[in-house]
Amino acid sequence: MIEVVVIAVLVIVFVVGVFVVMVARERGDLVNKKGKYPEGHFVALGLVFGICVGLPFGVLVGNVALGPSVGLAIGLLVGAMVEDKYRSLGRMRILTKRERGKEVGLLKFILIMVLSILVIVSAFVFILGIN
């Protein structure tokens, strides 16, 4: 049973890592030539980074749900603080309609990935729990 949890956590870490790369590339493309970042840029990166750091922490502590929760909270806090700093420096801008559409598409992708992972992990736990 513990092996299944470890494998599931590793799969989740891999998927979140791929997501981090996707978000970083997408966010890097959104920075315009004037050096202004779109609204929500640092919050999104903070959340993703917090979850990536929190997952291994949760495995080490023995509570897989605790790690991402703590990482999410810390990532949100750090991302919001960095974004406020950049906003006070005048380096943030409002999202365009095109960017808002991309954000909605990215959120749909994330939701589908998370639900897929939950279904796969649940199936493994169910199958191994029967034997």
Structural overview:
It is a single chain. This protein is mostly helical and 131 residues long. It has one domain. It contains four helices and two strands, in the order αβααβα. It has helices at residues 2-30, 41-61, 66-88, 97-130, and strands at 37-38, 92-93. It has a two-stranded parallel ribbon. The N and C termini lie close together (11 Å).
> Helices and strands, in N-to-C order?
HEHHEH
Proportion of strand residues? under 5%
* Strand order within the widest beta sheet: 1-2
Q: Helical segment tally?
A: 4
How many individual β-strands?
A: 2
Mean pLDDT: 77
Overall, the morphology is elongated
Number of domains: 1
Radius of gyration equals 17 Å
Sheet with most strands: 2 strands, parallel
Tell me the quaternary state.
single chain
Structural class of the secondary structure composition?
mainly alpha
Alpha carbon gap, first and last residue = 11 Å
Compact summary:
The chain is mainly alpha-helical. The chain has one domain (2-130). It has helices at 2-30, 41-61, 66-88, 97-130; strands at residues 37-38, 92-93.
What layout of secondary structure does this protein have?
Blueprint: H1 2-30, E1 37-38, H2 41-61, H3 66-88, E2 92-93, H4 97-130
Parallel strand pairs: 1-2
Helix pairs in contact: 1-2, 1-4, 2-3
